[in-house]
C-alpha cells in the first residue's frame, strides 16, 4: 500500500492478518500487517514496536493498540 490508508483500509488489513479470528494479533500476524502496509522494519524494530504497542502486556496487539502504534508512526 503506497498511500496513506483509510480507517476502512486499516480495519481490513487488521482483519485479514488476524488469522486466529480472535480480534488480536500475535507477532507473526503483526508482521503480516506491516508487510501489507509496505512498512520496512527490521525484525528487531518490529519486535520492539510490537512490545511497545502491547500496552496491556498480554502478548497480543488489539485493534486499539494497532491503531495507536500506526498513529505513532504517522500512518493513521
Automatic annotation (TrEMBL):
Superkingdom, natural source: Bacteria
Pfam families per the UniProt record, alphabetical: EF-hand_7 (PF13499)
Domain EF-hand, chain residue ranges per copy: 5-40, 41-76
InterPro entries (UniProt xref): EF-hand-dom_pair, EF_hand_dom
PROSITE patterns given in the database record: EF_HAND_2 (PS50222)
Protein name (Swiss-Prot/TrEMBL): EF-hand domain-containing protein
Organism the protein comes from: Actinomadura violacea
Amino acid at each position: 500500500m503506497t498511500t496513506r490508508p483509510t480507517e476502512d483500509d486499516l480495519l481490513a488489513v487488521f482483519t485479514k492478518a488476524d488469522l486466529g479470528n480472535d480480534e488480536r494479533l500475535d507477532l507473526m500476524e503483526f508482521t503480516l500487517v506491516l508487510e501489507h502496509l509496505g512498512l520496512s522494519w527490521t525484525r528487531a524494530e518490529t519486535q520492539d514496536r510490537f512490545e511497545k504497542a502491547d500496552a496491556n502486556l498480554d502478548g497480543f496487539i488489539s485493534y486499539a493498540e494497532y491503531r495507536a502504534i500506526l498513529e505513532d508512526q504517522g500512518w493513521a
